[in-house]
Amino acid sequence: MAVRGLGLDVCAVDRMTAALARHGERFERRIFTEAERAYAAGRANQAEALAARFAVKEATSKALGAPRGIDWHDVEVTPARSGLHGPGVVLRGRAREVAAERGIVRVMISITHAGGVAAAVAIAVDE
After folding, report:
1. Which of 16, 94, 2 has the alpha carbon at shortest distance from 55?
2. N or C: more exposed end of the chain, with fewer CB within 10 A?
3. How far apart are CA 34 and CA 76, in angstroms?
4. How far apart (Å, rounded) are the C-alpha atoms in residues 2 and 18?
């Protein structure tokens, strides 16, 4: 397995809170998939959960080389399953095309939140 790309992003939770207050459900639908929104709605801090997903989307795009044309819904964050695996991503559309063109078969992610900031790292790997 070889690393083909690395991405890092941070998102301030208060910035996400402000975006949600200002643009509401329209913003949520544009940026996040239905599954991501449902996951965040069930969390104690919805804005923190969405900030983390936003950071993953940005970090994944960077790991893929930040190509043009990737839609927000082309990268979907899947939740961790306790005792089984950590969070993951599903690539669709342009993100999936770019990954295939570059020989990327998987994107591994890590998410954290502290001090009002959500951060994510994405590592794109072949085989």
Report:
1. 16
2. C
3. 10
4. 39
Q: What is the pLDDT of residues 96-117, one digit of tens each?
A: 999 999 999 999 999 999 999 9
Sequence length of the chain is 127
Q: DSSP letters along 2-60, please?
A: -EEEEEEEEEEHHHHHHHHHHHHHHHHHHHS-HHHHHHHHTSS-HHHHHHHHHHHHHHH
On whether the CB atoms of residues 56 and 109 are closer than 8 A, the answer is: yes
118 touches 55 (CB < 8 A): yes
| Residue type, position 2, single letter | A
Domains of the chain: 3-125 (3.90.470.20)
Give the rounded distance of the alpha carbon of 89 from its chain centre. 7
Q: What is the pLDDT of residues 66-82, one digit of tens each?
A: 889 999 999 999 998 87
